[in-house]
Amino acid sequence: MLSFDEKKQIFDSFEELTLTKVSLGRLNYHFEGSAVPKTIVIKYLHPKSGNAFVYAGYLPKEETKEGYLSVHDLEETAIRELVVKALDFLKKTEDGYVEGYEEVWRDDHHDQLILRYSQPIWLIVMTTGSVEAVFKTKEAAKSYLNDEGFFE
Questions:
Q1: Domain-located, residue 97
Q2: Residue 73 falls within a domain, yes or no?
Q3: Using only C-alpha atoms, what is the Rg of the chain?
Q4: Is residue 143 included in any domain, yes or no?
Q5: Of 16, 55, 91, 130, whose CB is crowded by the most CB atoms within 10 A?
Q6: Structure pTM?
């Protein structure tokens, strides 16, 4: 089992996390770049037990403890994997897409358009960078592309 200091070193290695001291000497790590209101990625890293909880909101609630998983008995690789999964999930907007997500669409003449997510809208962007159209939903943007003869 890893010690408090070993787990702290793992969590400190994630540059996008910000350390915050909480009660009883415990530590939390926040992800200020979160696309959703949730920012605590690691909570309650305890100086005596070495336990902490990593955000796991991507899992069904019954598999977590209030949306978190304990790392008490986990090794470094498993802890790192959980933190990466949490960060990847928190980078996604409530719509489920990362800001700047793109898909390239082509037509039969090899022309290209880019479908880009720019929260909270979907843009159709020409290869020159000019915006051709704006839509509230991905479905509406895809329908437009299909109507114009473009496919994924």
A1: no
A2: yes
A3: 21
A4: yes
A5: 55
A6: 0.71
